[in-house]
Design a protein that fits this description.
Length: 101
């Protein structure tokens, strides 16, 4: 699904490949075998180097939330607190950490 100016568009792709591995999809793209939807942490360097070309940039993808669910405890283990702080720092902003550089 893609979103543009508040409207949602659903696309059912047809093709010869069914792949569920992002790196395999990236390799197929680099060989010119079609188009795909990949996150920038996988394809960002290829975009920057000009090896891949972004398409449909005026469209957005649906956002997905990530939640940390844990029991409330008076004395939370330090490793749990450190993990929650790390995830919040890396993923708790509008710009993913891999796009901040």
């Amino acid at each position: 699904m893609f979103i543009n100016s508040g409207s949602e568009y659903k696309v059912l792709p047809k093709g010869n490949f069914v792949v569920n591995n992002s790196e395999a999809i990236r390799q197929l793209l680099l060989r010119g075998s079609g188009i795909a939807q990949l996150p920038t942490f996988i394809a960002g360097k290829d975009f920057a180097a000009g090896n891949l070309k972004p398409l449909m940039e005026e469209f957005a993808l649906p956002e997905h939330a990530i939640y940390a669910v844990f029991p409330e405890r008076k004395h939370m283990p330090l490793k749990v607190r450190v993990f929650i702080d790390f995830i919040s720092e890396k993923l708790g902003t509008d710009t993913p950490y891999w796009d901040r550089y």
